[in-house]
Design goal:
Layout (H helix, E strand, L loop, with lengths): L1 H15 L5 H8 L3 H13 L3 E3 L5 E3 L1 H13 L2 H16 L2 E8 L2 E8 L21 H8 L3 H10 L13 H14 L2 E4 L6 E9 L5 E10 L5 H5 L2 H16 L19
Antiparallel strand pairs: 1-2, 3-4, 3-7, 5-6, 6-7
Helix pairs in contact: 1-3, 2-3, 5-10, 6-8, 7-8
Length: 263
């Protein structure tokens, strides 16, 4: 039975390459045509493959519907939370998770710092979109035309002397973030707060969320915070693997790996 299931599932990536006839399927599986036909008929009955008028088979609409339903039901916060807690336990600083909704970047999870100095950010609160590291990562992943249109619509409040002042500077910053794959806010929103962030991606490679570590400079300097960047990026990559389905869910936090100097 397991061999039959394995063979049936092996048909799906074959058809993902394009339509194939019965002989091609049988050859790829290394089975007789009658066996391949039984497998294809079963998959066809469940809507996972479709037989075209030319007698070739392609992936069925039901497969795409199931995939879309699975994506819509994924809860990035539920998946990410254990990793955020684990990261917080390793570094001690405030950890955030943010997503893009209706032209705003919102915090959807937060793990508080163990230090007495706390941040005033709240779950459900929009971030300062032109300076926040998580916002830069999410917006940098948008198509170029969408990035430019959004940048032209935004206001650019000068929270501090390090705030991004205009659309041209913002687009330049997004281009840098897009290329390097991580982002910072070093005193751009509050003079005393620094932040580093990394993206979380879906199965299609697009950024679906961003996570960050933030700390006041009375606790760590910006340079010291940047040494945590490899650890933050590894955590984001681990969440990406679980969210995108490329790795099994873990039952316990991953072992601690010391951070190294940021690139």
């Amino acid at each position: 039975m397991s061999q039959t299931v394995d063979r049936a599932l092996s048909i799906l990536p074959l058809l993902a390459e394009g339509p194939a006839d019965l002989g091609q399927v049988a050859d790829r599986l290394g089975v007789h045509k009658s066996t391949a036909l039984r497998l294809l008929r079963t998959l066809h009955e469940h809507g996972l493959v479709h037989r075209q008028a030319d007698q070739r088979y392609r992936l069925g609409a039901r497969l795409f519907a199931l995939a879309q339903e699975a994506v819509e039901n994924l809860d990035i916060r539920e998946i990410a939370h254990p990793y955020l807690v684990d990261l917080n336990e390793k570094c001690g600083h405030t950890v955030h998770l943010a997503v893009y909704e209706e032209n705003e970047v919102l915090y959807i999870d937060k793990v508080e710092s163990r230090y007495p100095v706390r941040m005033y950010s709240r779950i459900g609160k929009p971030v300062a979109i032109t300076v926040a590291a998580v916002a830069k990562l999410i917006l940098a992943d948008l198509p170029e035309a969408q990035r430019r249109a959004l940048a032209e619509k935004l206001d650019y409040p000068m929270y501090t002397a390090r705030s991004i002042p205009n659309a041209a500077a913002f687009l330049k910053e997004l281009a840098t973030v897009r290329e390097q794959g991580w982002a910072t806010d070093l005193g751009g929103h509050e003079e005393s707060i620094n932040c580093i962030a990394a993206p979380i991606r879906g199965a299609d490679g697009r950024v679906v969320a961003a996570m960050s570590v933030s700390a006041p400079n009375v606790v760590v300097t910006a340079e010291e915070l940047l040494t945590l960047l490899p650890l933050v990026r590894r955590t984001a990559d681990a969440i990406t693997r679980e969210y995108s389905g490329s790795a099994p869910a873990r039952d316990t936090p991953a072992p601690h790996t010391p951070a190294h100097k940021a690139p």
